[in-house]
Amino acid sequence: MIVVEGLRKRYGDVAAVRGVDFEIESGEVFGLVGPNGAGKTSTLKMLAGLVEPSDGSVQVNGLDPGDPEMRKRLGFLPEESPLYEEMTPRSYLEFFADLYDVPDAVADERIGSALDRLDLEVRDRPVGDFSKGMKRKVAIARSLVNDPDVLIYDEPASGLDPLTTNTVVEFTRELATRDKTILFSAHDLYHVESVCDRVAIMHEGQIPALGTLEEIREEHGDLEYRVYADVKVDGMVQEGDRFVTVVESMAEVESIRERAAAQDGSVIDIRTRESSLEDVFLEVTDQAARA
Amino acid sequence: MRAGQTLRIARWETLRSVGSVDRRTTIALVAVLVFVAGLVPVLLTTTPTPGAGLYRVGVDASSPYAAVIQEDPELQAVDPDLPLEPGSMDVRVVGTAVYVPDTEKGRAAAGALREAIITHNDAVMTQEDDQAAAFPVSVTLRYLPQAAPDIAGVGTGTDGTGPDTGAAGDGSDTGAAGTGGDGDGESGQPSAEPDGGTGAAGGPIPSAPIGGILGTTQTGTPSAIAPPFPLRSLLLAFLFLLPFNVVIQAYGSSVIAERINRRGEPLLVSPATRADIVIGKALPYFLGSIAITTVIAIGIGGGLLSIAAVAPIAALFMAATFVAGMLARSYKELTFVTVTISVTLTGYAFIPAVFAEVHPIAAISPLTLVVNDLQSVAVSPGEFVFATLPVTLAAAVLFSLGIGIYREEDMFTQRPLPQKAIDALAAPLRSRLHVGLWTALFIPFVLVLELFAVATLYILPVSLSIPVLLGVVALIEEVAKSVHVFAGFNRARFPRTVRTGLVLGVISGVGFFLAEKLLVITQLVGLPDLEIGQAAFAPEVLGVTPAVLLLAPLVLHTTTAAISAVGAQRSRIAYVMALGVASLVHLAYNLAVVMTLA
């Protein structure tokens, strides 16, 4: 379980994170979305113990992020894929397995399994020869050599081609089924929407929206009604042999129904459309910016 | 720090570094090492003759000078019938007449020929049965530390008087052997017991048991006595320093490589602590340095003492490089800094060692221990501690400071060097008492810098060197007491109030005062027996009562540290100005003490 209370981070005169509170339950997949500079990476680094908070507290499974015991149970994937490029994937992963006290036989099995699952077949060439996607896979495999309980991924699919992105998304989804607590940030909202149990939207160091996707949509999103009629009511446009308009409430739908009936016509179809996470994200950040 | 993690990181650092060197580079490196290894024995067995055959002397084989020219390597006998002109002949000898052309080289050749004749004649005279007739004048030199009142050679002429150089001519109880002994010391300082042979020298002789020649004697004809200079041992000792320049380049590159593209970030979230990582990554290079040192020691006849003496230098080279690697923003910047480190530390180690035979100042350098080891001169534990402890502690403190900024916020940002330096200084200040602790930890640097100042200034006249040194010492100590206080205020570790400044200043001053007692190790080698040594390390000790001895420096250090700290809590400019004031107060104190007690 991750508990974040009043978390703040200043870099000189710049406030990167300005009072953030949230909790993540064990086994939950939690997404952190927001525009560039919103404070996502700073927040994740404070959770991973990489950066010291200016104020507030972080507890991961009851431990301070800097605690070596906590670190043994943590898998962290930074935004870039920093690797020792002169090492092969296997030797690089063996090095980290060694640091985490993973027995050789177990490490061999884990490394082989992770690389198989991530479709990384080239394992004995220096990492420096690899493409960005291949390096990302090695970095993801590194985050798993210690079989962590908590995974913190910063933009795991950032800058990858669609095929590799899909592999990473699928893999993240698979990890979620293994009862791991996962916290990750992403620009790709599809990734978040398809994997996360809950989402926090960050903007300028704060979290203006947090909850399940349904809760956020309910609070910040729109429900649209696309109403089709066989007669033209004021505001409708013709679409083929019928007329259509978009309204935002059932009251308006009823009004259209009554006016169509007055012309001896009727409403022949009503379709609803929920806001996507992207729509909600834009709405929330727009609201926060205006506030 | 945990040994297991450290050793794991060290092992992988070794594998990674070895793996990063391609085959061609490996072959080239091995070839260079083999070449150097082959060169050392050749150098050891060969006497260099840089001027061999320099002057061409036209001489007939029947000439009495033919043998002289044959013996001297600088002179080359040529056909006397050749023209006496540049390129053919520099000097011509016909019978006992010497013809010298009016050229610069001709005059130099004639001088060399004259020296060769004198040497030859001396050699012939030593074969005589009656040596007293052959050498009516014999000189015995006794070597003493420079600052001793009876510093010059002890004249033991047969006429019973010393030389006119101001030396005591009394023949001390440990003095000249054999040829003299009955002088009365009239031209030197008066002897307490001018009875010749048993009398003590005119003044106290400091016990500065450095070098192989102090306290010993040289006896012979004036032309046969050469000043002591351990050139061969010194050059061999210098061999130990050369590999460090290569090692720190590799180590520095490894440190900065962790920072380029954030490669070291995953290690920072691993269970390894920052100390595990830093020490683990440094260990292979340090052990490599020691391995090379051992090979050199075996090659040139050094022993464990040489290795133990050089190890702290290796550690200091690496510690300085580590901090440089943490602060540099690029490989280019790192190269500039490592060259500076290399030159500075080589100077610190090498320059004092040049005086290994003649001056106590040499005791500050671990290389002096190596020179003594190579010359089979005994080294006391005190001398060993004096030469190696400051260097060792300085290395430890530098590593500690570097570990303080071995963190995400400092490693991967392109912040200016002064900002990172301030981060490094502020990082360990977790409470007010840490200010005093870190002031105390800076003492090794103070000691090293002050020793270096002594080593570089002692050649100046005392009337000039002591005031300059007192100023340098005051500035060094005031910076050591306040620079981290400034960093602490700058990084908001402490509230910016005058009261806090005063409190931190007092804590820093007390920390310095307590740790300053470390300087007592200078007593181990008699350095305070030198006037300049007294000025640097013990201006307050001469003839002062114990209470004053205890309280005066304490009051001084707390007062001046408080002045600087009050400025530091205000602004950078205020700090610089306050530091200047504090240094002047400190200088005035030192000058007052020295002048009063002089």
Give the structural class of chain B.
mainly alpha
Count of DSSP-assigned helices of chain A: 10
Pair of chains with the largest interface and how many residues each contributes: A-B, 30 and 24 residues
Structural class of chain A: alpha/beta
State the total count of DSSP E strands of chain A. Answer: 13
Globally, the shape of chain B reads: globular
CATH superfamily of the largest domain in chain A: P-loop containing nucleotide triphosphate hydrolases
* Share of β-strand residues of chain A: 25-35%
Beginning-to-end CA distance, first to last residue of chain A: 32 Å
Largest β sheet strand count, sense and barrel closure of chain A: 6 strands, mixed
First-to-last CA distance of chain B: 50 Å
Question: Based on the structure, what is the oligomeric state of the protein chains?
Answer: heterodimer
Strand order of the largest sheet of chain A: 5-6-7-3-8-9
Spans of at least 5 consecutive residues with low confidence of chain B? 148-213
Number of helices of chain B: 21
Strand content of chain B: under 5%
Short description:
In chain A, 37% of the residues lie in helices and 29% in strands.
3D structure, described in words:
The complex is a heterodimer of chains A (291) and B (598). With 291 residues, chain A is α/β, with parallel strands linked by helices. Helix content of chain A is 37%, strand content 29%. Chain A folds into two domains: 2-218, 3-Layer(aba) Sandwich (Rossmann fold), CATH 3.40.50; 223-274, no CATH class. Chain A has ten helices and 13 strands. By secondary structure, chain B is mainly alpha-helical. Chain B has a four-stranded mixed sheet with strand order 2-1-3-4. Chain B is globular. At the A-B interface, α2 and α3 of A face α1 and α7 of B.
